[in-house]
Structures are given as structure tokens and as C-alpha cells.
Amino acid sequence: MLISVRVIPRSRKNSVEWDGEGEGGRLKVRLTAPPVDGAANEALVVLLAERLGVPKRQVVIVRGATSRLKVVEVAGLNPGDLRLRLA
Fold first, then answer.
1. Which residue in 10, 45, 73, 75 is a FRET match for 56, CA 20 to 30 A apart?
2. Strand, coil or helix: 47
3. Which domain range does residue 31 map to?
4. How many domains would you assign to the chain?
5. Contact 24/33 with Cβ under 8 angstroms?
6. Residues 6+ apart with CB under 8 A from 77
């Protein structure tokens, strides 16, 4: 499953929330890690894997490695599971 993500690095705490309504929404992910040397990307993968209950190897940044707007692929997850696990 592909997920649109907006990353906000150097936040006070790590959090994941929906930004927008319905199918057109995206995840807004706040990370304490700075956007330096891939630290924020690694923190994003770890946080999403933890919150979704999947191994880190199933979470891959497909697009936007150097951007705040990213597309992340989570293997073995459907849209219904995503909403339930993040609620």
C-alpha cells in the first residue's frame, strides 16, 4: 500500500496524524530527528513500522527521500488496516 506523508522534522515529539479528510488525505508525521544525513528518513521508517505493527523492512520510502512530501510503501497492509492501526 502506498501512503502520502508530510514530514515535519525537528519537532518536540514524534507523532502521526491524518492531514485532510477521506481518501485524499495524507499522514502528517512529526519527527524529533533533524533532516541531516538521512536521520529523519530512518526515524520515519522506524516510527511508521512501530505504529503500524509491521517490521521495518516492510516500510520503504519510494519517493521524496530529500523532500518533506514523501510516498511510503507499506507491504502487507490495506487501507482499512491503516486507519485502524493509527486510530
1. 10
2. helix
3. 2-86
4. 1
5. no
6. 1, 52, 54, 58, 85
Q: What is the CATH number of the domain that holds 82?
A: 3.30.1200.10
Integer Cα distance of 69 and 8 in angstroms: 9
Q: Are 40 and 9 in contact (CB under 8 A)?
A: yes
Q: What is the pLDDT of residue 57?
A: 97
Nearest to 9 by CA among 56, 82, 67: 67
Residues 6+ apart with CB under 8 A from 80: none
pLDDT at position 23? 64
Total residue length of the chain: 87
